[in-house]
Write a structure and sequence with these properties.
33% of the residues lie in helices and 21% in strands. It is of the alpha/beta class.
């Protein structure tokens, strides 16, 4: 762990194991800004200060892994959720946590959030504390949004949690962990569940740098 006053060593954990059933297409490989949605998500995490990114895959995992390894090489680590069709997001998070390289904290980002600005990641990192482990959420209009920055010292708690109510319930039980950072970033609202979400995002952000 980093000592007080030094910047944390950060990683990223991106969730991309699902079936994309509401979208009607495989979200991670859909085009956006001249590349795929998953590449946009990974690029944003790297731009925000992560040294490496771990991606949890499941459905069409071989195809997705090949793309990521070709693009990022050893900077990206792949974790497999073999039960992607029958498990929730928390299980993918736990699988991803077990595959993370050593780090002080990690950004948790769903793979269908392609337009989070790098300044948001950097503001979260600035709020990380070497003294007290916690979870730093960006907030917009008072609402907690993704991506949180999760202190790696909390990983044992994440792995041990039985899952009732998902990760949101775990945060509710441990409000003492939570810190928040207000951001001016529409990207923390944008997650692409449907074709309408996707085309709205393209119309609004296609020409944006996302920085």
């Amino acid at each position: 762990m980093q000592s007080v006053g030094q910047p944390p060593r950060l990683g990223g954990l991106i969730l991309a194991a699902g079936l994309s059933s509401r979208m009607g297409d495989f979200k991670p490989l859909m085009p956006f800004r001249g590349k795929t949605l998953i590449e946009n998500a990974a690029d944003s995490v790297f731009a925000g200060g992560a040294a490496s990114v771990t991606v949890v895959v499941g459905y069409r995992g071989e195809e997705l892994s090949a793309l990521l390894r070709a693009r990022y090489g050893k900077r990206v680590h792949i974790a497999w959720n073999p039960d992607y069709a029958g498990t929730d997001m928390l299980r993918s998070i736990q699988i991803g946590c077990q595959a993370l390289p050593p780090c002080d904290g990690f950004f948790l980002l769903p793979g269908d959030m392609p337009v989070v600005r790098q300044e948001t990641f950097r503001r979260l990192a600035a709020a990380w504390s070497a003294e007290v482990p916690g979870v730093v959420f960006p907030t917009l209009d008072g609402y907690r949004k993704h991506p949180p920055l999760i202190d790696s010292r909390l990983t044992p708690e994440l792995l041990a949690y039985g899952g009732e109510g998902g990760l949101r319930e775990l945060w509710r039980r441990h409000e003492e962990w939570i810190r928040t950072v207000p951001v001016d970033d529409e990207g923390v609202w944008v997650d692409l569940d449907t074709q309408t979400d996707y085309w709205t995002c393209r119309e609004k952000f296609e020409r944006s740098t996302g920085g």
